[in-house]
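Allow me, if you will, to draw on your knowledge of protein folds for a short while. I have a record of one protein: its chain in single-letter code and its fold written as discrete structure tokens. Kindly check, if you would, that the fold set down in the tokens agrees with what the sequence suggests. Thank you for your consideration; the sequence and its tokens are set out here:
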Amino acid sequence: MTDRSVFVFSDDLLNYRFSSNHPFNQMRLKLTLDLLRKIGAIEDSQIVPPRMATDEELHLVHDPNFVNAVKLAGQGKLKGETAEGYGLGTEDTPIFTNMHEASALLVGGTLTAVDHVMSGKADHALHLGGGLHHGFRGKASGFCIYNDSSVAIKYLQEKYNARVLYVDTDAHHGDGVQWSFYDDPNVCTLSIHETGRYLFPGTGNVNERGQGKGYGYSFNIPVDAFTEDESWLEAYRNSLIEVVEFFKPDVILTQNGADAHYLDPLTHLSATMKIYREIPKLAHEVAHKYCGGKWIAVGGGGYDIWRVVPRAWSLIWLEMIENSNCYGSLPQEWLDAWKDQAPVELPLEWDDPENLYPPIPRKPEITEKNAQTVEKALYPIRSNKKSETV
């Protein structure tokens, strides 16, 4: 008997930690898993440990010299100038002890999720430790050392000959994944993110559509700062439904950064828990419609680790197992367990209050601008449909 869904986790994933005051904090994994346990939504049999990615697997995407540099950095043996050339030892991506081992385990967790789904052991797999979408072939960037999603996609191609749709709903553009497959027509990337005019990494414009044989297989929807739930969800629904129908993937890999939320300290969007209910729901639906249910989900950004991430990420798992036990009050046992450690007051409900923030003055203008952005992003698909019906 197989579980339809598996949850990839071990405490060793918490070793991916830059410093005590760095915004990237994998304590959010423990908070999320504990919330799921407190509502009785996960069993030990559904939790599978990540394995370590091999050097050969990392080399599917990453330059061997970069991998070696990460190893040396984690041992304190990489000189400062050399480290900076690889994006290591920066303010965003500081060096920490055994950083290669921690990063390779994170990549291996995503590969563990891939193998469970593609071998038929599970329909869906969730690895919240993954989703580090800014890593490049030879350079760390934006809190990301190795790019687990890029490695996983190449692994899906090499081992399973799969056409992969990558959907990224992090507030930051999924640049590392996009550029890894920019010329590949068998990988389609869809990223919905805050416009790069105000936010790292500054890429993800509508006109980034791919190159060579991969032209037309990269889709970007940069929404305006202060975008609210309704406009964000309209962009998400329209783009995902049309892109998946266009591409017809064998498997869907979703990156689920939870930093589009109003409370996130690093971004400027105005989403609430409403979008985090809908993101996994639609992904689940299209996975069954187009991919026989094959859906791999990873984490990503999310820097309000107490009030936002545990609720948002729990909803992915609850959707995977078709459990609707996510309305009303959060379990008192969870609140009691963490309230003394939290530097902020924990939320009492699964959903946010209607008055979470004051009204956004430019809402109609932002909504209209986002609708135009979606139209531009999907123009190639829509124009082809029109030409086919003429």
Observations:
- The mean pLDDT is 96.
- The chain has 13 helices and eight strands.
- The first strand starts at residue 5 and ends at 8.
- The longest helix spans residues 99-118.
